[in-house]
Protein 1
Amino acid sequence: MTETRHSAVETRGPTGTLERHGPIGTQRDKGPGAADGQEAEALLRQARASVDPELRAAIASLPVSMRRIALYHFGWEHADGTPAEGNAGKAIRPALVLASAAALGGTGARAAAVRAAVAVELVHNFSLLHDDVMDRDTTRRHRPTAWTVFGDADAILAGDALQALALRLLAADPHPASAAAVTRLADCVVELCAGQHADTAMERRGPDEVTLEETLAMAEAKTGALLGCACALGGLYAGATEEDVEALDAFGREAGLAFQLIDDVIGIWGDPCRTGKPAGADLAVRKKSLPVVAALTSGTPAAVELAELYGVPYEDDKEELERIALAVERAGGRDWAQAKAADRMARAMHELSRAVPDPEAAGGLLSLAEFVTRRST
Amino acid sequence: MTETRHSAVETRGPTGTLERHGPIGTQRDKGPGAADGQEAEALLRQARASVDPELRAAIASLPVSMRRIALYHFGWEHADGTPAEGNAGKAIRPALVLASAAALGGTGARAAAVRAAVAVELVHNFSLLHDDVMDRDTTRRHRPTAWTVFGDADAILAGDALQALALRLLAADPHPASAAAVTRLADCVVELCAGQHADTAMERRGPDEVTLEETLAMAEAKTGALLGCACALGGLYAGATEEDVEALDAFGREAGLAFQLIDDVIGIWGDPCRTGKPAGADLAVRKKSLPVVAALTSGTPAAVELAELYGVPYEDDKEELERIALAVERAGGRDWAQAKAADRMARAMHELSRAVPDPEAAGGLLSLAEFVTRRST
C-alpha cells in the first residue's frame, strides 16, 4: 500500500520499457496484449467502471459525518462538500479480484465478484487513511490528505468505518464464498497492520539496525498481502479449490514484492518528470527502502560510506543525495533490487501457471502483474 | 463506551442504592436476585470466565507486534511484556450477549454465543484504543493508556487489528447466525465511529452551540449502540425472530442511555471516594455532558450564568466548579437527567418484556441493566 505516494505514476499514460536495466520477468510467457500494457489499462478501466457504482453506494450508506470524509478521500468531493471530478486511484486491487475471478470462473464469476472487489478497495483505502495519519503524509493522489483537512480523529474514524463497511459488504453477500472471503480479508487487515507497524518501527532505528530479511517481510505484509488477498478473493468467488486460491494469493504476493522493489528503485533514481517526485526523495527522508537496506547490509566499502551518510539528517544538499544514490549503486543495491524484482516476477508467473494453467485464461492477471511492475527507472 | 473513564467505578464492590434521588426504573418488575446486584455480579463473573479463554486465544493469534499492544491494553501484560494480573474491564457487553442468548435459547444458546460475546468485547476494546488516542486520555482501568506507552501509531494499528479480529471471529463461526452477526456488529462499528465523531465535534463548539437532541443522539451512538448490539447478537445466536432481535437491541440501547445519563450525573456530583474521579471532573474539562446541555438549553436564568461560566477555561478554581455544578442543578440539569434515566429504563423494561415475556427468563438481562445504572450520585 506504499505505492500511491508516487501519485503521478498512477495517472500517467502507457509507460516505457525498462530500457536501461532490461525488462522484469523476461522469462515469463506473455499473454495476449500484455506486452504494451494496453490490456492492463483496459482491465483497470473496466474494473473502475464495474466497481464504482457499488463503491459509491457503500459510501452513501455511511452516516453523513463519515460519508463526507470518505467522499473527500476518494476524490469525489472537495473539502467543502462540492462534487469533484474524482481520482480514486488506479483500481489495481479491484482489477486483480475481477481478473482472478474471470480467469477461474469466466464472466459469471467476474460479475459475482464485484462486491469482493469493492471490499478490497475499501480495505485499501482504510489503510491509506490510517497510514497517512501515522506517517504524517500530507499529499495523496495530488490532494491534501484527509487528516490535514479534517484532523487526525476524523481520518482515523473514517478509516475505521471503511474497514467495517468492507467486511460488512462481504458478510451480507449471499454468495457461498462470503464467509471465507470475510475471514481472508480480515486476516489480511491484521497483516497490513503488522506491516505498517514494522515499517514505522524500522524507520525509527539506525541505518545499521535493520536487516534485509525484515525489510522484505515488511514489504510483503504492507504491499504483497493485499494484492495476494485480492487475487485469492477472486478465486474464492470463482469457486476455486483451496490449492488454487493459495496459488493465486502467492501470485499476488510475489507480484506485489516485485512491484515494491521497482517502486523503491524509482524512489531513488526515478525520473521526476515521470514519477511526480524528485529523484532521491526517499533518500532525503532517509527511508530504509529495499535497495538501501540491501546496500547497507552488503558488507562492501560503499556500505560503510552509505551508513555514515544515512546517519545524518538531510539538509537540502542535492549533491549529498547524489553521493548517497551512488553509494547505494556501488554497494549493489540497485542491481540487487532489479534482480530480485525479476526473481519475484518469475515466482509470480510460476504460481499463476499453477492456479491458471491455460495461458489464454491467465492473460488478464499476467498483464496486470506486468503493468504494476513496468516502471521507468 | 464512555463509562470506563470512571475507572474505579468498574472495579468497586456491590454498590449502594440511589438514596438521595430514588431508584431508577422503579416501575419495573424485579427479576429474582436483581434488587441487590448480586445476580448481576455473578453474571459478570461468569461472562468473564466464559469469554476469557477464547478472547486470549484470539489475541494470541495476532502477529507478535500487535499481540503485545493488545495484551498490554487488556491488562494481561505490563509494558515490558511480563505477565500482569489483568483488569480487562467489567465484561458488561459480553454478559449482555450471553444473558440475551440464555434468555431466549437457554444454556445451549448461551454456550454457542460465547464467540459473539468475544467479538463484542473485541469491538469495545478497539473503540477504547482509538478513542483514547483521539481524546488524549492518559489513564484507562488505572493504567497508562496504550498510546502513552507505545505511541499513537501502534495504538491505532492494534485497534484496527482488534476490529478485524472481532469480525473475523464471527465470520469463521459455523453458527447459522454468523453472517447476520457480522453485518450487525459492523453496522455498530460505523455507528460508534459516527458517535465518537459527534462527541469530538461537539466538544470543539461553544456552550451555546450544542442542542440536547444531538447530545442524546451522540450518547446513543457512542454508548447505546454497542450495548444494543450485544443484546441483539445474543438474540441472533438464540435463533430469535427479527422482531425479538430488534426489541433486544432497543432494550440495550435504552439501558445504555440510562447508564450514560447516570454516568454523566456522577461526572458532576459523584463522590470521589466511590468513583475514583473528583467531583466536577467533567465540569473542569468543560465537557458537554447530558445534564450540562440540558441545563444550558433550559431557557432559565441559571442557564445564562452557566453559559458564561462554561465559556471560560478552567483554572484550578474549585469554588468555580461548585458554582457551575449549582448552576446546572438550578437550571434543572440534574433533575432532568434523573427523570430521563428513569424514563429510559422504563422504555428498556418495556422492550425487554416484548422480547422476553417470561420474567424468570428475563431476570438476567434485567439485573444487568439495573447494575449498570445503579450508581451513587
Note: The interface with chain B takes residues 62-63, 65-66, 126, 130, 133-134, 152-154, 156-161, 163-165, 167-168, 171-172, 178-179, 182-183, 186-187, 189-191, 193-194, 196-198, 200-201 of chain A (CB under 8 Å).
Protein 2
Amino acid sequence: MIMSRTEAAPDQARGDLTERLLAGLPAEAVLTDPDITASYANDMASFCPAGAPAVVVLPRTVEEVQHVMRTATELRVPVVPQGARTGLSGGANASDGCIVLSLTKMDRILEINPVDRIAVVEPGVINATLSRAVGELGLYYPPDPSSWEMCTIGGNIGTASGGLCCVKYGVTAEYVLGLDVVLADGRLLSTGRRTAKGVAGYDMTRLFVGSEGSLGIVVRAVLALKPQPPQQLVLAAEFATAGAACDAVCRIMEGGHVPSLLELMDRTTVKAVNDIANMGLPETTEALLLAAFDTPDPAPDLAAVGALCEAAGATQVVPADDAAESELLLQARRLSLTALEAVRGVTMIDDVCVPRSRLADLIEGVERIADKHQLTIGVVAHAGDGNTHPTVCFDATDADESRRARESFDEIMALGLELGGTITGEHGVGVLKKEWLAREIGPVGIELQRGVKQVFDPLGILNPGKLF
Amino acid sequence: MIMSRTEAAPDQARGDLTERLLAGLPAEAVLTDPDITASYANDMASFCPAGAPAVVVLPRTVEEVQHVMRTATELRVPVVPQGARTGLSGGANASDGCIVLSLTKMDRILEINPVDRIAVVEPGVINATLSRAVGELGLYYPPDPSSWEMCTIGGNIGTASGGLCCVKYGVTAEYVLGLDVVLADGRLLSTGRRTAKGVAGYDMTRLFVGSEGSLGIVVRAVLALKPQPPQQLVLAAEFATAGAACDAVCRIMEGGHVPSLLELMDRTTVKAVNDIANMGLPETTEALLLAAFDTPDPAPDLAAVGALCEAAGATQVVPADDAAESELLLQARRLSLTALEAVRGVTMIDDVCVPRSRLADLIEGVERIADKHQLTIGVVAHAGDGNTHPTVCFDATDADESRRARESFDEIMALGLELGGTITGEHGVGVLKKEWLAREIGPVGIELQRGVKQVFDPLGILNPGKLF
C-alpha cells in the first residue's frame, strides 16, 4: 500500500509537492485551492468513497505529464488520472493526498487521415468533437457512450466504453490502434501502430484499454475510423411482456440481421419516461424495443424485423419513414436515465452483460429483486449485446432505502454472473465493483492481473484502490 | 536461460521425462521415436533454426495438458506448443530437448450458438472445419489465413493471424471473446467472456492472442461469429504501373467503400502465375488489383470502384457477373505463393504492413531491393490493409543467393518501419523476426513485454527463444 507523504505533515508535504510540480508546469496548470481541488474528487458514480486531492494538475503537453509522473514517483504520491469524470464506477475518484491528473486540456485532434482511416488525438478530446470532425470528412468514429457530448476519448479508452452502436460496430477497444503512454516513472512508451493490422509482440495497446488509469497515462491515441454509414432508420415495437421482447431480440439476431442499434426499455422505464414527458407511449407497454438499420436500403431488414417482432407477440410495430421520425422514436430511449433519476432522486446504474439468449432471465430476475427490496428498478438495455443497465432508483437521504439499493445492485451482479454474464459490459470496475471483480475472474485471474499491474506500476502510485 | 535436463545425461533425462509424462497420458499420446519426433521440429518458415524435441505429446483433454505443464515445470523442461505448423516465422519450431505439445488431437467443436453468435472450440479444430460447420447454420467465422484448410484455431490465436477478409472483417484477435488457458505451472485460467461485451479487469484474452505460445497453452476458445454475408462479387483491374494500382487502392478507401477483399499482385507475381498456369493474364500487366463486395447489392460499389480504378489509370477493368466468375478471378491470387515458390525453389515471405497511403512507396522500395540483390521478389498484398507479403525467391542450395535473400528480407522490414509500418501484419515474430521486434517496439517496450512474460512464465519454459 502506498502512503502519500501528506500523512506525516500534510501542509508541509503538500507545499513540497506543489513546488516540485511547479518546476515543470505553468502556474495556471497547478490548482491547490481546496475548494477547487475538492470539485475534482468524484466521477458520477453513487456509493463510491472519494478522498481529498492534494493538488490538481492540468498539463497541456506530453513533457508536462512526464514531469508530473516523475515527481509523483520521486515523492511516492498517488496519481488519479481524470477525463470528464462522467464515469459510473468511481474509477476517477480521488484518493486522499493524491495528484489529480486531469487530461482535459490536452484536447487537440492532431490528424484525421481519410486514406488510412485513422485519427490521431490527445486524450482530452471530447467524443462528440471527434465524431463531428471526422463526420465532416465522411468518416465515422462509432463508439457513442450516452455521455458522448461530455466524455473524453482518454476516459473512453480508460474504461473501454461502449454505447448504442456496439451491436454493429463494437466497443472503444476495437478502435484503438496505438497509444503513447507516460509510464508511472515518467518514461514514454509507444504501443501498437498506425496500420490496419499489426502483431509485433504482446498486444500492449489492448492492455491499456479498460485499465482505468492503473497502468499508465494515455497521452495520444491512434484511432481507427470507418466510412460514415447512411442515416439509420428506426423501428419501434411494443410488447405485452418483457419476455416477448427478449424473444424478439433472439429471433432478430438468430435471423442474421445486423441492426445498427437494438435497444430495450422495460415497463418501469417506459412509465418513468411517460411521467416526465409526453412521448405518446401507451401506459400498457410492458416493453419497448427499438431496432435500427443504417444500410443503403434498410427497408427489407426493417420489414423482416417487424415481422419477427409480431411473431414474437409485439402488440404494435411502428417503422419510421425517415431520419426525423427515427430520431423521435429514439427520444424515449435517450430520456430513460433522466426519467429514472426523477423517480427517487438518485440512481445506481448496473452494467450487467449476459449472453443475449439469457436476457429474458435477467429481466425477470431484476423484477424479483425489485419486488423483494420494494424498490423501483428500471431496465434499459443494449439488448442486441445482452448488455443491460438495471437502474436502481432510491432516495439517498433514506438510509434504509440506500442500503436496499446497494443490496439489490449487488444481487443483480450476482444474477448476471449466474447467467454466464459479466459484472460490467462497458462501465468498468472502478471502486464500485472491485469486490466483484474477484468473483468474476477468480483467484488465479486476480493474481495474474496484479502481476501485470506490478510490471507497469511497481510503486503502486497509479490510481491505487481501483479495480482490485 | 532455461536448460533442459537433457544437457546433463540426455538418455537418462529423456527416460525420466517420458516416464513422468506417461503417468498422466495414454501411451499413444507420447511419441519418443526420434524419427517421428524430428518430423515435429519445424513450421513452414525458412532460415529458422530448430532443435530436436525430447518427446512429442498429443493430449486430448485439458487435464492431460495440465499434466504436461506440471511435469514440465517440475523438471524445468521447455515446452513448444504446436498446431498444424503452417506458421511462417518459426514460432512453432522445437528447441533441443523440449516437449513438443501438439494440440491437434483436441479438435472438437464444443458448441455453436446462433442466438449468441458464438462458437466454443478446442484449439486443434481446423479453421476450414469450423468455417464450414458454422456456415451450415448461416453463420460466418471470418478469419481466413491462406492455410485455412490446414491451420488450427489454436495456431490462429497464437499468431493472431489474418487473411483476405481482414479489410472488412478484421483479424483473428477481434473474434476471440474468451479463453481457457493452461498456465506454465499447470493451473487453469479462464479469461474473457461469452457475452458480446465485457470489460472486467485487464484484457487478458487479448494478451494471449498473438503471444505465440509464450504465456500459456490455449485449450478452449469462445469465438464470435457473424451472420453469413451474401457471396462476394469480384472485380479485377489491370494497371500499367504498380503506383497506379496503389493510387486506386487509396481512392477506393478514401471513397468510403468497404470491400470484402482488396488484393494486389505485382508484375513479378503475375509473371510467376503465368509461368505455371494459363490464367489469361496479359504479360504486360504491371499490377493486378482484385476488389470484392459481399453486400446484398454489390453492383453500385463495383461500378464505383471500377470507375475509380479507371481514373487511377487502369488499362482494363473486368467485373465478374456471378460467384463462379468471381472465383475464377481469384484463382490467380490463390496461386501466387505456389507460383513464386516455383521461381527458385524456396521463398521467404515478408509480412510488412504499412499505412495504406504508403503502399506505393513500399512496392517501389521492394523493387529497388530486388534489383540491388539481383533477386526475384514478388509482392502480393492485402492492399486494403496495407499488409504486403514481399516474397523473396531463392535457391537454398546457393549460399550466396541465400545470404542475399536473408539480407533483402531484412531490408524490406527496415523499409516497412521507415514508412511507419510494422514488421508483421499477421504472421508473428517467432524466431525469424525476433531481432526486429526490439527495433519496432523499442527498449521500453521490450522491457515491459519481458516483464509480462515473467508474470506468466517465471521459469521461462514456455516456447523459449521466441519473440524476444
Note: Confidence is low (pLDDT under 50) at residues 1-8 of chain A.
